[in-house]
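Figure 6 in text form: structure in, sequence out.
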C-alpha cells in the first residue's frame, strides 16, 4: 500500500497540472446518443426526422442527439517474464504501473470507466470497467503485485479476449515490451474496432551489453540460460544489431496497423513522452 500511495502522489501532479484538460480534449465521446425529440422547424436536417413520433402525432418531429461523453478505458498489461526485468533501478512492470496510474486517474477525473486485462501466455486477470478512486487503486495494485502463472507473451490472445468482453468502442492502452510475434493482424483488427494505443516499455540493457566480462544470461520467458562473454566486441555488436532489428520490425508493425505509440524507458522520465502523445493527438483532432 505504501508503494501504491507513492505512485498516487507522484502521478497526481501529472494528472492535475500537466495533463489537465488534455485528456478530455483528446479522448472525446465515441458516438452520439439520443437525447429527446422536438417538433420539426425549417432548416432541420430531414434525415433526423423521427417517423414513428411523426406518424403518431401527425406533426413532424426530429431527433436531438448529444455527444456520448462517457468512455471506457481499457488497460491491457503484459505481465510476462520479460516485464520483470530492469537494469537501471526499476523494473519495466513498475514503470508500467505508474503510467497506468496516470491514465486511470485522468480517466476517472472525466467520469470515464477503467478496466484492466493482465496477460501472459493467456489472459490471467480481468477487472471489468468501473469508476472511482478505490477502483483505480485496485487496478494499480493488480498491475504491481499480480503474480502471473505464465512467463511468455500472447498478444493475439489478449486482443481476442478484449474484443470478446468489450462490446462498445474503448480507448485501449496496450502496455508491453512487444517481445513477441504474430500480433500484427490481431492488432490491426482490434484497432478498427477500438482506439488502440501501444505503450512500448523498454530498458537500456535490452539495447546494448556493457563490457563486464563473462555473464550468465537467462531468457526471462523461456528460462533458457547461457554464458555470454561481453568482453568480446563482436558479441556486443551482434547484440546491439539484433536489438535494432527488433525495433525496426516493431515500428513497422505499428505503422502498418495505424496504431499510435507511446515509448517509455526505465532510465528516463515518461512525462515528456506522454505529453508529446497528447499534443500529437490534439493537433490531429483539434
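Output sequence:
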Amino acid at each position: 500500500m505504501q508503494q501504491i500511495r507513492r505512485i498516487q502522489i507522484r502521478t497526481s501532479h501529472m494528472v492535475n497540472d500537466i495533463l489537465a484538460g488534455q485528456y478530455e480534449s483528446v479522448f472525446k465521446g465515441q458516438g452520439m446518443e439520443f437525447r429527446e425529440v422536438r417538433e420539426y422547424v425549417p432548416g432541420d436536417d430531414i434525415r433526423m426526422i423521427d417517423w414513428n413520433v411523426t406518424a403518431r402525432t401527425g406533426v413532424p418531429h426530429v431527433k436531438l442527439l448529444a455527444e456520448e461523453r462517457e468512455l471506457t478505458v481499457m488497460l491491457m498489461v503484459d505481465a510476462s517474464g520479460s516485464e520483470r526485468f530492469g537494469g537501471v533501478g526499476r523494473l519495466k512492470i513498475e514503470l508500467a504501473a505508474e503510467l497506468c496510474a496516470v491514465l486511470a486517474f485522468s480517466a476517472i477525473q472525466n467520469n470515464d470507466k477503467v478496466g484492466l486485462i493482465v496477460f501472459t501466455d493467456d489472459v490471467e486477470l480481468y477487472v471489468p470497467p468501473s469508476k472511482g478512486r478505490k477502483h483505480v487503486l485496485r487496478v494499480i495494485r493488480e498491475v504491481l503485485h499480480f503474480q502471473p502463472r505464465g512467463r511468455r507473451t500472447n498478444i493475439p490472445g489478449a486482443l481476442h479476449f478484449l474484443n470478446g468482453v468489450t462490446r462498445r468502442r474503448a480507448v485501449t492502452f496496450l502496455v508491453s515490451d512487444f517481445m513477441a510475434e504474430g500480433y500484427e493482424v490481431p492488432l490491426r483488427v482490434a484497432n478498427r474496432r477500438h482506439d488502440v494505443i501501444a505503450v512500448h516499455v523498454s530498458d537500456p540493457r535490452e539495447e546494448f551489453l556493457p563490457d563486464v566480462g563473462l555473464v550468465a544470461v537467462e531468457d526471462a520467458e523461456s528460462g533458457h540460460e547461457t554464458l555470454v562473454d561481453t568482453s568480446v566486441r563482436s558479441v556486443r555488436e551482434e547484440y546491439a544489431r539484433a536489438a535494432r532489428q527488433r525495433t525496426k520490425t516493431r515500428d513497422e508493425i505499428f505503422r502498418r496497423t495505424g496504431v499510435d505509440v507511446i515509448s517509455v524507458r526505465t532510465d528516463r522520465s515518461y512525462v515528456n513522452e506522454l505529453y508529446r502523445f497528447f499534443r500529437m493527438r490534439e493537433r490531429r483532432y483539434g
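Caption detail: Strands lie at 32-39, 61-67, 72-78, 113-119, 123-130, 171-176, 195-202, 214-218, 225-229, 260-265.
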